[in-house]
């Protein structure tokens, strides 16, 4: 079936096309035009974008849940359905590290089974395991007895449990034996990512030389930048090949530091992630137990009973709003970081509104809320 989206303010994001149109055949984009398309197949479905912004679907490579659904506890299908209503069209379901080894294996197996059977909502593109191979002192949630060094044998167990769907792992490279695993992870098609780490600058650069090209929620869960003890953060900024995740909720990293990271890395090396907990999108006052802690939300962040922060709350469409309104990036640049760059990291034909790419797109209103979400040519959410 052919679909035409017309009267659209299109961000490809390589170019901005005012009053443009997008022609879709089945699951793929076939053409993007300025103005109206002259001739159309007779069965074409026409959607009026009402002059609103049309962007590539948002891609979240680091998210633990949303809409009240906990990905680590069988909530992947529910989270996927909710994410589609918020403009996220693809994601990496991400596990947390506050589980025993057996619990984590069962969680991975459940996510893999759900991925195989899912037919609705945002598209899962693989599994991201955030630990348990981390420095325990680098998270308020972590428990030392549940954290340990990464090994090839352990990853092989999780690859089997995931039915080959493991796509990214976050680990602390300073833990014993961790560096040796990096080349092997890349051979398996798994992205090694530094995170929750106390690694030195020199050790991080050793990891980069071995193939490390990704950083989990840069700035967060790693030592601050210091002029005589540069650490992992300086190595990330100093390595052009590293893609740096950034939680752009305006809280986890304040705007001046977001701008600094962009200056150091460039737009095309920064991937916006939500790192959202299951409370994401829930009304202010909602509470739940997660990772052994009782958390709630004030509608802006996730908090503990003593008001300390407890994970991220805002999803990627909210991050776009923050990046633009806080003058961190232009709208087009924000879209690149939240869609194009993560697609490049995952090597998928998404993240661009151009011929040959998946027809994943979002029509946004003035407040960055989706009016329509399309995934591989199928409308999964619409208020139009």
Give the overall pLDDT as a whole number.
Answer: 95
Oligomer: single chain
Counting DSSP H or I runs of 4 or more residues, the number of helices is 9
- How many domains? The number is 2
Please describe what this structure looks like:
- This protein is an alpha/beta fold and 384 residues long.
- The chain folds into two domains: 2-54 and 354-382, Urease, subunit C, domain 1; 58-346, TIM Barrel.
- The protein is 27% helix and 28% strand.
- The chain is built from nine helices and 22 strands.
- It has helices at 76-85, 101-117, 152-161, 178-187, 201-210, 231-238, 255-265, 316-325, 331-346, and strands spanning 2-11, 16-25, 28-34, 45-48, 53-56, 58-63, 65-66, 69-70, 88-95, 123-124, 127-130, 166-171, 191-194, 214-215, 243-247, 270-273, 287-290, 293-297, 302-303, 361-364, 370-375, 378-382.
- The strands form five sheets. Strands 1, 2, 3, 4, 5, 20, 21 and 22 form an eight-stranded mixed beta sheet that branches.
- β20 (361-364) and β21 form a beta hairpin.
- α5 (201-210) crosses α6 and α8 packs across α9 (331-346).
- The relative contact order is 0.17.
Structure summarized in a few sentences:
The protein has 384 residues and is an alpha/beta fold. It has nine helices and 22 strands.
Keywords:
384 residues, alpha/beta, Urease, subunit C, domain 1, TIM Barrel, 2 domains, 8-stranded mixed beta sheet, 6-stranded parallel beta sheet, 22 strands
Helix-strand blueprint:
Blueprint (H helix, E strand, L loop, with lengths): L1 E10 L4 E10 L2 E7 L10 E4 L4 E4 L1 E6 L1 E2 L2 E2 L5 H10 L2 E8 L5 H17 L5 E2 L2 E4 L21 H10 L4 E6 L6 H10 L3 E4 L6 H10 L3 E2 L15 H8 L4 E5 L7 H11 L4 E4 L13 E4 L2 E5 L4 E2 L12 H10 L5 H16 L14 E4 L5 E6 L2 E5 L2
Parallel strand pairs: 1-4, 1-5, 6-9, 9-10, 9-11, 11-12, 12-13, 14-15, 15-16
Antiparallel strand pairs: 1-2, 2-3, 5-20, 7-8, 17-18, 18-19, 20-21, 21-22
Helix pairs in contact: 5-6, 8-9
